[in-house]
Specification:
By secondary structure, the chain is α+β, with helices and mostly antiparallel strands. Helix 3 packs antiparallel against helix 4, helix 3 (about 55-70) packs parallel to helix 5 (about 105-125) and helix 5 (about 105-125) runs antiparallel to helix 6 (about 130-215). It is built from ten helices and five strands. The chain has helices spanning about 5-25, 35-45, 55-70, 90-100, 105-125, 130-215, 220-245, 265-275, 290-310, 350-360, and strands at about 280-285, 315-325, 330-335, 365-370, 375-385. The chain is rod-shaped. The protein has two domains: about 5-125, no CATH class; about 185-245 and about 260-385, Histidine kinase-like ATPase, C-terminal domain (Heat Shock Protein 90, 2-Layer Sandwich), CATH 3.30.565.
Length: about 400
Amino acid sequence: MKRHPIAGDCVIAAVLACMELLTVISMPGGVQPVAFFLVGVALLGPLVVRRRDPLLSAYLILAAGFAQLLTHSAAALNQTDARIRVADIALGISLYTVVAYVGRRQGALYVLWLAVGVTIWAIWRLDMPAGVLPTLVIVVIFAFCWVLGEFMGARRAYHSEVERRLDLLETERDQQARIAVGQERARIARELHDVVAHAVSVIVVQADGAAYAVRSQPEMAERALNTISATGREALTELRRLLGVLRSDDTESDRAPQPGAQSISDLAERVRAIGVPVRLDLAGELDDLPAGVGLGIYRIVQEALTNTIKHAGPGATAAVQVTRVGDRVELDITDRGPGSSRKGLTAVGGNGLIGMRERANVFGGTLQAGPHTEGGWRVRAVLPVTTA
């Protein structure tokens, strides 16, 4: 349990008072009893609040010291002398407190007042040259209090700085944790959007086609239902993989491989099976791309083709060109169809476009999406390739 500072100061004052009472067997000479006890209370009492209000306590004790100069004179023979008393240690404690808790500037001013008092005391109350030794002892005591105050002040400043830096580190840690959580939520949202939006778009288109052809063209309806089944199973597999990653604490656990640039051909085949002709052109070394870049390329192409299915309308066609040129990969996805104008959809709106742009920005790339000058809709992205 931490003790309150006032309690410790009360103990110091009480100890000094007991020491003074023990050293004074009889009433000292050269001072009136009332003045002796009043000065003693004035010297020791302010110690109780020396850490709460250092300057007030120090100057009250200093005033009591000057009062001692005026009331405590030399004693007669065979009497205890009150010119130096145990309670005078309060002056040194006050000097230490001012230096340690307030600073050198106020400590130097306090030393100046102490020097004035000691000088008056040595000249007025002591007999020279016999008073040289007591004066030197007092000066050494005050010098020791100054050095001790400097040491404790530096130590307090050091601990304060350490605590401040620890608070700053805790704040930065909390901020970094919030940023990391936000980034992870955005990443999960992108993955869920890519998986669910693509699968649902395919399922809706195929379900509409199956409903239209179920009586007149049963074989086409059966193919559409098979496509719905395969697309649903693939979406469930990716969702299970994603949920497994979120639920598992074992980073080394076995996981389904992430799709990459090499999976774009399968993606194009699935879109063709829906009824959207896709012309695919892959050029350059795409097999050795980093896993993150490959996944980003796949998701951008997937989202662009999903938008083609959703917005381009019946009879739409798409062209996908993925080219690796040196240390970058260029993507160019265009489509043409009756709905290619994308009315109501801008280049800065829509979760799919935002997700594609975020994926490109993650790798330091760029992405542009909007109406094509030759008609239709175009998505163009450039992703730099970072190799180990």
